[in-house]
Structures are given as structure tokens and as C-alpha cells.
Amino acid sequence: MEHKCFNCGSFEAYYSKGYCCFLRTDCGHCRKFGETKQKRFSCENWRSRYYPAISSGRVLKELETALTQINGIKLILDERMEDLNADRK
Predict the structure, then answer these.
(1) How confident is the model at residue 72 (pLDDT cuts 50, 70, 90)?
(2) CA angle 55, 66, 78 (to 5 degrees)
(3) Cα 23 to Cα 16: distance, rounded to the nearest angstrom
(4) I need a labelling partner for 58 at 20 to 30 A (CA). Which of 5, 18, 66, 72 fits?
(5) Alpha-carbon distance 61 to 37, whole Å?
(6) Measured between alpha carbons, how far is 8 from 29 in angstroms, rounded to an integer?
(7) What is the DSSP track for 29-74?
(8) In the chain, what are the domain boundaries?
């Protein structure tokens, strides 16, 4: 089976701006060779794309941590605004 560039892990497609979205072109950048290649080409350096699995539990925990930090910053800013308003009166 012949592997095509558009499905290679080293291939990054080029896009052009359409009316309401970006459209994929027929060529892209090959990181292996450092040059522009057509998406239908193939070579012996083909490698599969790697998509790491992300567990939803870890994502939710990170979002909870970020939300807690943002709420802490909000409380500090609210206190400063109250102090500035009290000083003005």
C-alpha cells in the first residue's frame, strides 16, 4: 500500500482564505525534507500521525484549577477596587 503525503505525520497542509472559511490547498510543507510537496506524493519516509489520548478527567481537573486561580485574581482585583472607591469618598 502506498502512503500519501496528506496523511503523513510530517506533512502540514497549506490553507487559503475563502469567503467564510479557510480552504485546504493541494500542497503543503514537508518537515522531513523542508520543502513544499504536493499532497498526493508519496515517499519512503512516511510516518503515521500521532494523536495523544487526552483523558477528560485530567482536562476537567486542569480547568477547575484554572478557574480557581482566576477567581482568586478576581477577588484581589475586587478588593483593590473597593479600597480605591473608599479612598475617593
Answers:
(1) very high
(2) 160
(3) 5
(4) 72
(5) 41
(6) 11
(7) EETTTTEEEETT---TT----------HHHHHHHHHHHHHHHHHHH
(8) 1-46, 54-89
